[in-house]
Design goal:
Blueprint: H1 8-28, H2 37-47, H3 54-65, H4 70-91, E1 101-102, E2 105-106, H5 108-111, H6 114-134, H7 141-155, H8 160-169, H9 177-201, H10 208-235, H11 238-241, H12 247-250, H13 256-260, H14 262-279, H15 288-299
Antiparallel strand pairs: 1-2
Helix pairs in contact: 1-4, 2-6, 3-4, 3-9, 3-15, 4-6, 4-9, 7-9, 8-9, 9-10, 10-14, 10-15, 14-15
Length: 302
């Protein structure tokens, strides 16, 4: 299978989207000088200046499948990324994972304080839905309402928040593979799926079979992302990852590495990569960026 992630054209595209998203997020976030200044400064600290922007990249790549306007996709992608940023702020809190490093800098509750970090997460989540509501992102209002519903479900108890709840309840336990997959379909996969489907929804309405193909792709990539995250947590360094390495093992978190071992976890990541590519087969060259992103997710070192 070709490692498209190494192609200069893909790397240039990825860099341009990441730069565009940094500018878009800087624009939609309240300025640090606007009252209350401490909260707004902390929101910008949490959301700007770091991260791979995998979810926005997926949204833009999916938007290419449906010929979506970049101006629409960047707002939809910003909404998804704000939800992701909020989740990281809350996950790092002492009552959750109690981490002190994120994206190579102190976590929000360390740089500011716990109460501010809690409010940052709340405010980032609210801003995400404000963006979806105040911008024209789809030709049909019902389709835009579906975007709101999709993102809300991905962030809620049947998605990311529910996955985090399962994760916290599973600390110190050994989960069977189906249980582990259920947790990460919610915790990680739901928001990745939302990024793909919302990005595609910014363009022409995909046919039912095309949407199903995008959905299968997103599910495979979402699980692959988590498998590789677990591998990197086990084998990577804090300097490379920009977050505390080895924390899952230290805290007794169930992971794909603890459940399967390193070798089998690597095999699973490759299998999921293959499933992602297979899902895109009927979409042709329109899905070339999505295919490259599946490679990036599995082959990344950070």
């Amino acid at each position: 299978m070709p490692a498209a992630v190494t192609e200069p054209a893909f790397e240039a595209w990825m860099g341009s989207v990441q730069a565009r998203m940094e500018q878009a997020l800087a624009r939609v976030l309240p300025g640090a000088q606007i009252a209350p200044p401490r909260l707004h400064a902390a929101m910008r600290y949490a959301a700007l200046g770091g991260g791979k922007r995998v979810r926005p990249l997926l949204a833009f790549a999916a938007g290419e499948v449906t010929a979506a306007a970049a101006e629409r996709v960047e707002i939809a992608a910003a909404a998804v990324e704000l939800i992701h940023a909020y989740s990281l702020v809350h996950d790092d809190l002492p009552c959750m994972d109690n981490d002190v490093l994120r994206r190579g800098k102190p976590t929000v509750h360390v740089e500011y304080d716990e109460a501010t970090a809690l409010l940052v997460g709340d405010a980032l989540q609210s801003l995400a839905f404000q963006l979806l509501a105040e911008h024209r992102l789809a030709d049909d209002a019902r389709e835009q309402l579906d975007m709101v519903k999709l993102l809300a479900a991905a962030a809620g108890s049947r998605g990311m928040a529910g996955g985090q709840s399962i994760d916290l309840a599973s600390t110190g336990k050994q989960l069977a593979l189906p249980e582990l997959e259920l947790m990460h379909i919610h915790k990680t996969g739901a928001l990745i799926r939302a990024a793909v489907l919302i990005g595609a929804a910014c363009g022409t309405t995909p046919a039912a079979e095309e949407r199903a193909a995008l959905d299968r792709y997103a599910q495979a990539v979402g699980l692959a992302f988590q498998v590789v995250d677990d591998l990197l947590d086990s084998e990577g360094s804090t300097a490379t990852l920009g977050k505390t390495a080895g924390k899952d093992s230290k805290h007794g978190k169930p992971t794909y590495v603890s459940a399967l071992g390193v070798a089998r976890a690597r095999e699973l990541a490759e299998e999921l990569r293959g499933q992602a590519h297979a899902a895109l087969a009927r979409l042709g060259t329109r899905a070339r960026r999505l295919a490259s992103l599946a490679d990036f997710v599995v082959l990344r070192k950070f």
